Amino acid sequence: MAVKERVKARLQTGRCNFNNIKLFVLCHGMLQCAQLLYSAYFKSSIVTIEKQFGLSSFSSGFISSLHEIGNSLLIVFVSYFGSRVHRPRLIGMGGLLLSFGAFLLTLPHFISEHYDYSTDTVGNVSYPNADTCQPANQTHSLEYCTKSDIRFNTMSSVWVIIIIAQLIVGIGSVPIQPFGISYVDDFAEPSNSPLYIAILFAISVFGPAFGYLLGSVMLRLYVDLDRVNPATIDLKPSDPRWIGAWWLGLLISSSILVIISVPYFFFPREMIPRKKSGSESDMLSEMEEKRMKEMSIREFIKRSITLPALAIGMVLGGLFMKRFNISLVKIPWYSACVLIIVIILTIPLFFMGCSTQKIAGINYSDDVNSSSPFTLKANCNAQCFCFDYVFNPVCGVDAIEYISPCQAGCTDSVFNHSIRMTMTYNNCRCIQTSNNEDYAHPGHCKVSCSYLLFSMVFSISFIGMIASLTHNPLYMTVLRVVRQEEKSFAIGIQFLIMRMFAWLPAPALFGAVIDSTCIRWNKTCTGKRGACNYYDNNLLRKMYLGLQVGYNILGVLLLLIAGWKAKMFSTRRVAAQNTEAA
């Protein structure tokens, strides 16, 4: 009997340790951070997956938005029961399901063949200088096409795995934000709720930063590092044919999600509120504690200069709500003004960027008098049997880029065996300079506007900080206009609307816009279209930013309508109160 009482006392003690809303905010911020880490990593790796499996930007965008379908199917149903279920446990189960979906996404790597980045080796037969100008070799073409057909046939199973995994990810993410936000708002003090939610989102903003950082590290490792010795690979990460280990980061993300999801099973269904004393000493103590919290927040903001701009914007949005007591009627007008500022600040970005480099046969031709469309065939490479599906770009000494050494008419190369890299391609018939130089270096030609990178990054960060000032006020609008038992359901409806009209179509829509600016599609030897090799950079920048500005303009119009309706509702409510008083 004493043993049972001792065990019960320990369980109660452990339970009380988790009866702390600040601890929940910390845990939930970390879970949302891990969720966004996975999401950002997958987005940073989608281009690599696109290259390996020959997808278009529209297809990769559709893959990115698949999880929104699974989320949209259940979010309303799950959110409706938000106040009737054990919310922390459901959040924990959602995190574990999200982890399982991330793990499934790694399977395409293990079921597909190893990545063959060159036509130099087909089966057990080696073809030296296969990418250079060589006489016709139809046997080589047929053998390579047979292997490409086998690789293409595995895409059906890859698609099935990706679809199932993304649907599971969407289902797992259903309870995380609606239940977490409503749980914080229910058990935090009303004056601190906006600040806690702002801090929660500020913590989660670090997720994309960590996700992209993880992507930059993992994608510098060779994709088949578990199958081949990386020392035998003749590629470097700077090579356009390089494929990074995208699957390894997904395994790491899955493990992080499992670890962070476990504490949710120890939080209580309802937190026990602290007893408030009406004595003068207790009131003074609470006022002093509140003042110290505000001072610590000020210190936090002063020391957060190096934090991501989005986190700063979200914290500032929460502080604006608390300090200036922005009413519900003023929030739409405030948000509309912020978006108008964002649109104005975005306009200079249309003129900041690099133009597309000169690419022989695609957007550049030596024959200035020719009125025919650009073609890869020219007099200088007419004697070469070049595969149109080979993408091994080289930059000539004349600053003209060619999609392969063969297209440049190069007949031989210089290979450094110590570092296992091709240094130069020589005797290139299509490259002629005033000094009679005729060689090319592997890789793309260097851009001439790299000095704009810092300005572009700073501008985007500043615009993102300004836009995020509306994040917390718009969330608080939803929380304040519904009854307490309907908060989870209201947030679920809000997330459903955002998913159906923004998050679900946006990746595919932006992917279609990106595809529309492609000027050179890669093709397999069987004629099937693969990933895009080159884009019109100027057109891409204008189309991409133009679509964003279009969304912002639509947002301003909707906010103005909401502000007008809120003002009318407030006027009628005041008139009704005056009538009742009379």
Q: Quote the distance from N terminus to C terminus.
A: 68 Å
In angstroms, what is the radius of gyration? Answer: 29 Å
What would the principal axes of the Cα set say about the shape?
elongated
Residue-averaged pLDDT, rounded?
A: 75
Estimated helix fraction = 55-70%
DSSP, total strands: 9
Brief rundown of the structure:
The chain is mainly alpha-helical and 582 residues long.
Please provide a written account of the structure:
The protein has a domain at 17-273 and 484-581: Up-down Bundle (Growth Hormone, Chain: A). It is mainly alpha-helical. The chain is elongated and about 95 Å long. The chain contains 19 helices and nine strands.
Write the layout of secondary structure elements.
Layout lengths: L1 H16 L3 H33 L3 H24 L6 H18 L2 H5 L9 E2 L2 E2 L11 H16 L1 H18 L3 H12 L5 H12 L1 H13 L27 H16 L18 H23 L6 H15 L7 H16 L47 E3 L4 E2 L9 E5 L4 E6 L13 E3 L9 H16 L3 H10 L6 H17 L1 H11 L2 E6 L5 E7 L1 H45 L1
Antiparallel strand pairs: 1-2, 3-4, 3-7, 5-6, 8-9
Helix pairs in contact: 2-3, 2-8, 2-9, 2-10, 2-11, 3-7, 3-17, 3-18, 4-7, 4-8, 4-11, 8-9, 8-17, 9-13, 13-15, 14-15, 14-19
